[in-house]
Amino acid sequence: MDDGFKTETFLRGPKLEDFEYLGCKVGQGTYGQVYKARRKDIPDDRSYALKEIESQGFSLSTCRETSLLRELKHPNVINLLGVILCHTDRKVLLLLDYAEYDLCQMIKFHKTSKKDKKPVKMAKGTIKSILYQILEGIQYIHSSGVLHRDLKPANILIMGEGIQRGRVKIADFGFSRLFRNPLKPLTEVDNVVVTLWYRAPELLLGDKHYTTAIDMWSVGCIFAELLTYEPIFSCRQENNRENSPYHHDQLDSIFRVMGFPLETDWEDMKEMPEYITLQEEFKPCNYSNNTLVKYMEKQNINPTSKDVAFLQKLLVMDPNKRITSEQALKDAIFQKEPFPTGDVFSGLEIPYPERKFVESDTSDRRGKKRKYSTTSGAQQSDQTQGQYGKQIRMSNPTTLSEQRITRLRKR
Ligand SMILES: Nc1ncnc2c1ncn2[C@@H]1O[C@H](COP(=O)(O)OP(=O)(O)OP(=O)(O)O)[C@@H](O)[C@H]1O
Question: Residue 105: what are its φ and ψ, rounded to 5°?
């Protein structure tokens, strides 16, 4: 860690005692808990998010998240305002803009309304604006030489009332990596990436040289979920080989929607490390009647709509044929009304409930701090325990080379 970074981050930066917790744990991730806080040292009405990292000191994931977020500055990327070190218990806290909503919470709202037979649809303009802003954020991230590698509804935050109302913020860079001139193939240092349901087929087949296309697959999964309120490729989490990217049930879930890929559709499929396993375990004829268009039709989405046509460009099995973020932003879908807007709610009343909180049953380590859940206990378990796609972290992470962090810092 260079001296400039240390001084700027820890000595001149904000301190924990400058903040008062609003008693809110607003999120629980695999690696940390997120609290809502306000400044108490200066007059400031803004709410902040404090992400407390669960590991002791600077883990690989914290290192990645802080070093990358420090460089990535874009309206659609969550803004890292500072890093707070708590010397007494060796905790690291990331100070971030506070976002009132996330896509997991919003999709759940619509799904519940449908189940309760009082269906409320997500506005077409909202969906298009969310999609456009995700793509703008991703284009920026990719053009900065970074792969996000864990895009899913829970990591797409939306700002609530205030000057940034309705703005998409891509969050959770704990899994992100530089991809330009990597010192080693990406999977030699990271075995498993991307939450299962949003994981691209090439990753599931063990591709070691995956590209930005993996994030575009996840964007496709998120877009499908915005249209139907159902995860498009859900599957049970069990039966996976320890620490392996290959997952039979997840591939089955993809083929049930998309059909089995023909060799002419995906020429490099036979080069995938798990191709032999695929041939042994799957019969293409079992999926011969399945197509994305048919799936969308079953979900009551007009199969000839521009939405489905666009989805077909994102959810392409061959990563080389998958649309890039740059191409996607120029697509015809965004040239047609409703046009994407900076406030995804287009100035209309926001129908979604604000993040709720629940009293924690564990001891209150900072006096006033109490634990809160995102919207409900059920949703929290959706996000953290895997109903929303299990995220498998590396069991034995290799340290991210200082070289790479320094390289990024110098760019
Ligand atoms: N800036 C923020 N403002 C409000 N809520 C947030 C913010 N950042 C994160 N959250 C909430 O906290 C949850 C967990 O945060 P985050 O995803 O960053 O943690 P993680 O441990 O890396 O999680 P994951 O298990 O998804 O990798 C998010 O899903 C979101 O609901």
Answer: -65, -45
